[in-house]
Amino acid sequence: xxxxxxxxxxxxxxxxxxxxxxxxxxxxxxxxxxxxxxxxxxxxxxxxxxxxxxxxxxxxxxxxxxxxxxxxxxxxxxxxxxxxxxxxxxxxxxxxxxxxxxxxxxxxxxxxxxxxxxxxxxxxxxxxxxxxxxxxxxxxxxxxxxxxxxxxxxxxxxxxxxxxxxxxxxxxxxxxxxxxxxxxxxxxxxxxxxxxxxxxxxxxxxxxxxxxxxxxxxxxxxxxxx
Amino acid sequence: xxxxxxxxxxxxxxxxxxxxxxxxxxxxxxxxxxxxxxxxxxxxxxxxxxxxxxxxxxxxxxxxxxxxxxxxxxxxxxxxxxxxxxxxxxxxxxxxxxxxxxxxxxxxxxxxxxxxxxxxxxxxxxxxxxxxxxxxxxxxxxxxxxxxxxxxxxxxxxxxxxxxxxxxxxxxxxxxxxxxxxxxxxxxxxxxxxxxxxxxxxxxxxxxxxxxxxxxxxxxxxxxxxxxxxxxxxxxxxxxxxxxx
Lengths: 226, 245
Hints:
The structure holds 2 protein chains of 2 kinds. Chain A has 9 helices and no strands. Chain A is mainly alpha-helical.
């Protein structure tokens, strides 16, 4: 412990920051894409058309029962096959790019469950009131139900995003250089596991702890008072 | 699509004289063992922490809260790497050497996954205890129970039943989370999945099979706990009236 060498971190800070930037980019992409796809899935799940319900339920159940590491590796390998099938050409995707796709698709399943309970938390009368005003289904959803569902679920959506931010570390499985991957690669070279892994753990803790406190604060300030 | 499907490769021989399906079965065994052992660690420690956070003692609450904050805000893979590569360097030298040389890998992995999951279980146990009315504790104290006895005989038996659905999903999650232990050298199902892909390139078949394995593990756990839930249901609660009316 006495020879904890901070210079290793200082020297490699640029590389670590680059990794952290990648982690944040994947998190934001997957959050936005995941919430959009997740909302569509939730609407399908709650629609009255049976095939749409089955599709959404199947999607959510499959992705929620598989370990994320397995999906990351599987998509990394299968995505080029699918692209080749569609375009007929070999398109190299790369580990770093495939992760954007994987996390968006995977997180959509989790966001969809959150949005579903958000939509179900809106009183039925609200939809009826929308229809009574002459709204179509789309308008009632767009202007009445979804804004409330989103607001009710905002803290849960953000908590899921904190989990997502941590889960990006699993791109370790395909060797992409996220924040943890960067630290791991430096460790392989400089053989300073104590400094590198501790730094990663502390930085993750500070970011996630701060964010989760913010979510807690938000939760007490955003609630709709009925 | 020019993918070459070959379902029979599972029965082909591997380098070590076994068949590929043997690798999957052995991975399945390790996944089950590591998951169940971690779940046991997590249930015990999570219960202790959950109880600590509901006691009137401020320092116990603070300790429990701090534990949950730390273990929920660091990714699992980073925690496992900490246990494997950092902790042995920080403890006294002879203990560190023992951890690196003599202690089996899977023990550290089980402890790591268990401590990670304990933070989640602690949250649920706490929520369960807090959902009980204060009167339950008062009634216990009025009967002459000590503080501990009100937990043992009154509050915990209720709290566990109330949070059993949440514990069920945690118990299903642990199978998925156990896949991360491949990174610290556990030869569990995901490790074998990765290895078989490297050897055979039959990505689609093996993905389907391994996905089904995880699905079955989670499903079996779900059914077992649903059975427990039905047997331990508290009469009179909203969930308790389901099916009995």
